[in-house]
């Protein structure tokens, strides 16, 4: 505090000196009490939606605008089961095999943006059934790479100032959309790279070795069956809930003279010196609608035609049809043992390869499971 | 026919103008509607033989599990499609025949615990639940005077064979009341021979009325409006209470029905997608069957 | 008011789970003398302890029953409660009485028993502990 005051006094004196040496005497007030903004928003935090104005275009004009959009960006097409546009990024071609860096476990690859499709059962080849959750990788493309020096995250952890200084930032977009519906500055973010605007953006912290050219498509084959992933998504919004639902309290007795408080939490504090409510006390409040990470989920199967990933278990956050982010797991014992597709997988035109399964999973194309008799 | 019957039904109730917009099918409609009249069923078969791509009108009764769960929050078109693809893949390896609640089935499944690694269970189908790959049935039989039930998942890869020993329907969609009935209603011979039903004949309806054991029961059957139950012989107060709790207006609640069922247009779309492949599988199976029939005598001789 | 009404009635209004827990009445299905007598008198045995951590018994669990004033151990060979796919469910909670060595008291089991018991009981048998596999030998029918 004293330092700041000193600084300001010094500043003032210098300013004053300047003004005295000048001809006119203007009182200049220093802005010492205006603090810099705490959060510097990243460059992709832009006004997105445009105010809708129909402009009263005629049918012909509307068709012309559509044609112009298609000329500029590409024709609408169905790629991997999603209606999107044919991306014609000039950088796309030699993007993946640009560098020949050997993968090692300390390198951090990019993640994917996916949509949760729901769940259905899968069977292992000993007849055991398990529920799997389906995620579709929805038309992901690399938008931008910001190297570690330039990348300045808006919120830095207080504890370790060096944190993530070695990591760059990869901006990934999902689901192409008509540029007519977005603002100019938002479209400019993509247009510079020759891309359609994307509906969903995601930021992934990666090692500089894993950087990718803008326009590179990211596919489900980025992961392999048997890998473990972390799934980050927004949990189901349940609104304002009591302690029984929110924290699993038992409530109070139904009888024995209890009135009007069968589902309440009971006591929340003590008297005397501790005569206050401790921070973090579990109380009623808003439940859900916050980001949660399901760590170490195993991939059972991947469909390359529709870019769908089957993950074991039903614990991943979010409703059906919600957006989730898939990362390589951070759990130390479940990290990649063998080299994964690095920095990402290449697009392979192979009509035969539709499904790839984890080992010891029952493939639906396989015949019925039979057990062999012992002895 | 279904649509017509629904319309007539509603016209009688005085809601005629609404009908054209909200006329849709319903999977758990009363049996008088679901039961196909013989001429209609035959005409359906004829159409099928002439033009293969025409979807048979009774698909939703033969393949009910191809219709997805109607709960809006859980629906996703791509997942449903992938699920159907997997189901057809599985159907290439196992014949899942046409059957209904009340039919007598025999399921052979591989079992690690059995000495010959396979078990067979014969019983009456008392419940059919689930959509897609989760579709499951419950079979019930009385073995050595003890009622035994096993639940089978239809698309479980350990199931080797599903045979229909007697194809028939009962008056209800669920026969859970057989648990409270005397044993003779659910006793079936394990070595029962399959009964032959000529192709094209409508599925017979078994109209036996089940006489329950005296209370206590597993459910209050007088409140469930079951058609296949004989007189329950209860006191007046039970029926009175059942009448109080009944919700007879629900069958006119079109919104409720809409939420509970898959719209007819969507059903058509789904079956049009699945039909040709299912037909192929069926034809392949018929060929194999004929081959088997032909081969058998040569083997024995 | 509501709570007093709830307290007044002596039955549970929650859905029936059909768990085998302490004080559950069971049915002896072997032909041991004590079991036969108890069933014939209309005094079926009562579960007084379950030898697992959950306190709820399923197929293959060892329990302690009170039968005709005696404490006898038994193995559960069939449950009423809902089971997973491919596992049979019965209309009665069936038990077979055993002694401390795992030898059944009777010589014959008159009802079908689940086939998965063959594996479960073999896994529970150790070389110097109780031998439960004798139970499998007296079974007449598997499901």
Automatic annotation (TrEMBL), chain A:
<dbReference type="GO" id="GO:0005762">
    <property type="term" value="C:mitochondrial large ribosomal subunit"/>
</dbReference>
<feature type="region of interest" description="Disordered">
    <location>
        <begin position="251"/>
        <end position="284"/>
    </location>
</feature>
<keyword id="KW-0687">Ribonucleoprotein</keyword>
<dbReference type="GO" id="GO:0003735">
    <property type="term" value="F:structural constituent of ribosome"/>
</dbReference>
<dbReference type="InterPro" id="IPR000597">
    <property type="entry name" value="Ribosomal_uL3"/>
</dbReference>
<keyword id="KW-0689">Ribosomal protein</keyword>
<dbReference type="GO" id="GO:0006412">
    <property type="term" value="P:translation"/>
</dbReference>
<dbReference type="InterPro" id="IPR019927">
    <property type="entry name" value="Ribosomal_uL3_bac/org-type"/>
</dbReference>
<comment type="similarity">
    <text>Belongs to the universal ribosomal protein uL3 family.</text>
</comment>
<dbReference type="Pfam" id="PF00297">
    <property type="entry name" value="Ribosomal_L3"/>
</dbReference>
<dbReference type="InterPro" id="IPR009000">
    <property type="entry name" value="Transl_B-barrel_sf"/>
</dbReference>
<protein>
    <recommendedName>
        <fullName>Large ribosomal subunit protein uL3m</fullName>
    </recommendedName>
</protein>
UniProtKB/TrEMBL annotation, chain B:
<dbReference type="Pfam" id="PF01245">
    <property type="entry name" value="Ribosomal_L19"/>
</dbReference>
<comment type="similarity">
    <text>Belongs to the bacterial ribosomal protein bL19 family.</text>
</comment>
<dbReference type="InterPro" id="IPR038657">
    <property type="entry name" value="Ribosomal_bL19_sf"/>
</dbReference>
<dbReference type="GO" id="GO:0003735">
    <property type="term" value="F:structural constituent of ribosome"/>
</dbReference>
<protein>
    <recommendedName>
        <fullName>Large ribosomal subunit protein bL19m</fullName>
    </recommendedName>
</protein>
<dbReference type="InterPro" id="IPR001857">
    <property type="entry name" value="Ribosomal_bL19"/>
</dbReference>
<keyword id="KW-0687">Ribonucleoprotein</keyword>
<dbReference type="GO" id="GO:0006412">
    <property type="term" value="P:translation"/>
</dbReference>
<keyword id="KW-0689">Ribosomal protein</keyword>
<keyword id="KW-0496">Mitochondrion</keyword>
<dbReference type="GO" id="GO:0005762">
    <property type="term" value="C:mitochondrial large ribosomal subunit"/>
</dbReference>
<keyword id="KW-0809">Transit peptide</keyword>
<dbReference type="InterPro" id="IPR008991">
    <property type="entry name" value="Translation_prot_SH3-like_sf"/>
</dbReference>
Automatic annotation (TrEMBL), chain C:
<dbReference type="Pfam" id="PF00238">
    <property type="entry name" value="Ribosomal_L14"/>
</dbReference>
<dbReference type="GO" id="GO:0005840">
    <property type="term" value="C:ribosome"/>
</dbReference>
<dbReference type="GO" id="GO:0003735">
    <property type="term" value="F:structural constituent of ribosome"/>
</dbReference>
<dbReference type="GO" id="GO:1990904">
    <property type="term" value="C:ribonucleoprotein complex"/>
</dbReference>
<keyword id="KW-0809">Transit peptide</keyword>
<dbReference type="InterPro" id="IPR000218">
    <property type="entry name" value="Ribosomal_uL14"/>
</dbReference>
<comment type="similarity">
    <text>Belongs to the universal ribosomal protein uL14 family.</text>
</comment>
<dbReference type="InterPro" id="IPR036853">
    <property type="entry name" value="Ribosomal_uL14_sf"/>
</dbReference>
<keyword id="KW-0687">Ribonucleoprotein</keyword>
<keyword id="KW-0496">Mitochondrion</keyword>
<protein>
    <recommendedName>
        <fullName>Large ribosomal subunit protein uL14m</fullName>
    </recommendedName>
</protein>
<keyword id="KW-0689">Ribosomal protein</keyword>
<dbReference type="GO" id="GO:0005743">
    <property type="term" value="C:mitochondrial inner membrane"/>
</dbReference>
<dbReference type="GO" id="GO:0006412">
    <property type="term" value="P:translation"/>
</dbReference>
């Amino acid at each position: 505090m004293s330092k700041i005051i000193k600084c300001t006094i010094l500043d003032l004196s210098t300013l004053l000196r300047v003004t005295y040496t000048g001809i006119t005497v203007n009182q200049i007030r220093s802005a010492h009490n205006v603090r810099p903004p705490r959060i510097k928003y990243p460059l992709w935090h832009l006004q997105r939606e445009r105010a809708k104005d129909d402009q009263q275009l005629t049918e012909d004009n509307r068709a012309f605008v559509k044609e112009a959009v298609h000329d500029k960006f590409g024709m609408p097409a169905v790629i991997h089961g999603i209606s999107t546009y044919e991306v014609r990024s000039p950088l796309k071609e030699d993007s993946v095999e640009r560098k020949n860096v050997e993968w090692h476990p300390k390198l951090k690859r990019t993640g994917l943006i996916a949509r949760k499709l729901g769940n259905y059962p899968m069977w292992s080849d000993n007849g055991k059934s398990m529920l799997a959750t389906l995620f579709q990788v929805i038309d992901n493309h690399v938008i931008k790479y910001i190297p570690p020096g330039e990348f300045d995250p808006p919120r830095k952890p207080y504890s370790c100032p060096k944190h993530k200084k070695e990591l760059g930032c990869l901006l990934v977009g999902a689901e192409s959309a008509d540029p007519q519906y977005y603002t100019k500055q938002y479209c400019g973010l993509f247009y510079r790279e020759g891309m359609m605007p994307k509906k969903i953006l995601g930021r992934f912290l990666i090692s500089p070795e894993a950087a990718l050219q803008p326009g590179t498509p990211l596919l489900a084959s980025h992961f392999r069956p048997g890998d473990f992933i972390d799934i980050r998504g927004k949990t189901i919004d349940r609104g304002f809930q009591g302690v029984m639902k929110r924290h699993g309290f038992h409530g109070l007795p139904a009888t024995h003279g209890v009135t009007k408080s069968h589902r309440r939490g009971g006591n929340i504090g003590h008297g005397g010196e501790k005569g206050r409510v401790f921070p973090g006390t579990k109380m009623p409040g808003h439940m859900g609608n916050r980001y949660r990470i399901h760590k170490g989920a195993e991939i059972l199967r991947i469909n390359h035609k529709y870019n769908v990933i089957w993950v074991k278990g039903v614990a991943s956050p979010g409703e059906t049809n919600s957006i989730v982010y898939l990362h390589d797991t951070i759990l130390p014992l479940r990290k990649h043992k063998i080299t994964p597709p690095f920095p990402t997988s290449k697009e392979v035109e192979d009509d035969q390869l539709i499904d790839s399964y984890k080992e010891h999973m029952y493939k639906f194309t396989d015949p019925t499971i039979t057990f062999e008799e012992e002895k | 026919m279904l649509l017509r019957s629904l319309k007539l039904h509603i016209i009688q109730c005085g809601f005629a103008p609404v009908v054209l917009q909200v006329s849709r099918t319903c999977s758990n409609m009363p049996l008088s509607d679901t039961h196909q009249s013989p001429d209609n069923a035959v005409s359906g078969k004829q159409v099928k033989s002439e033009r293969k791509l025409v979807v048979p009108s009774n698909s939703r009764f033969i393949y009910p599990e191809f219709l997805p769960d109607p709960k809006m929050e859980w629906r996703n078109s791509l997942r449903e499609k992938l699920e159907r693809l997997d189901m057809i893949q599985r159907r290439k390896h196992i014949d899942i025949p046409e059957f209904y609640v009340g039919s007598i089935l025999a399921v052979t499944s591989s079992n690690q615990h059995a000495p010959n690694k396979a078990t067979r269970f014969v019983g009456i189908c008392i419940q059919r639940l689930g959509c897609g790959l989760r579709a499951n049935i419950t079979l019930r039989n009385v073995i050595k005077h003890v009622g035994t039930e096993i639940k089978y998942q239809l698309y479980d890869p350990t199931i080797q064979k599903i045979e229909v020993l007697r194809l028939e329907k009962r008056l209800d969609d669920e026969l859970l009341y057989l648990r409270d009935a005397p044993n003779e209603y659910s006793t079936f011979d394990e070595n029962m021979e399959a009964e032959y039903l000529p192709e094209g004949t409508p599925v017979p309806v078994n109209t036996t009325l089940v006489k329950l054991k005296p209370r206590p029961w597993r459910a209050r059957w007088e409140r469930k409006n079951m058609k296949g139950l004989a007189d329950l012989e209860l006191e007046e107060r039970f029926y009175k209470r059942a009448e109080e709790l009944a919700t007879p207006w629900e069958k006119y609640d079109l919104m409720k029905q809409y939420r509970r069922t898959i719209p007819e247009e969507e059903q058509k779309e789904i079956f049009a997608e699945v039909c040709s492949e299912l037909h192929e599988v069926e034809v392949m199976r018929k060929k194999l069957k004929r081959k088997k029939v032909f081969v058998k005598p040569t083997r024995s001789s | 008011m509501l709570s007093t009404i709830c307290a007044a009635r002596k039955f549970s209004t929650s859905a029936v789970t059909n768990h085998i827990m302490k004080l559950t009445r069971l049915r002896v299905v072997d032909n041991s003398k004590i079991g036969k007598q108890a069933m014939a008198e209309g005094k079926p045995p009562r579960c007084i302890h379950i030898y697992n951590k959950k306190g709820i018994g399923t197929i293959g669990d060892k329990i302690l029953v009170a039968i005709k004033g005696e404490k006898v151990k038994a193995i559960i060979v069939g449950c009423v409660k809902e089971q997973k796919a491919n596992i049979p469910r019965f209309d009665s909670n069936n038990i077979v009485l055993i002694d401390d060595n795992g030898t059944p008291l009777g010589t014959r089991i008159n009802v079908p028993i689940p086939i998965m018991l063959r594996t479960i009981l073999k896994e529970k048998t150790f070389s110097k502990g109780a031998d439960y596999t004798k139970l499998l030998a007296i079974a007449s029918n598997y499901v």
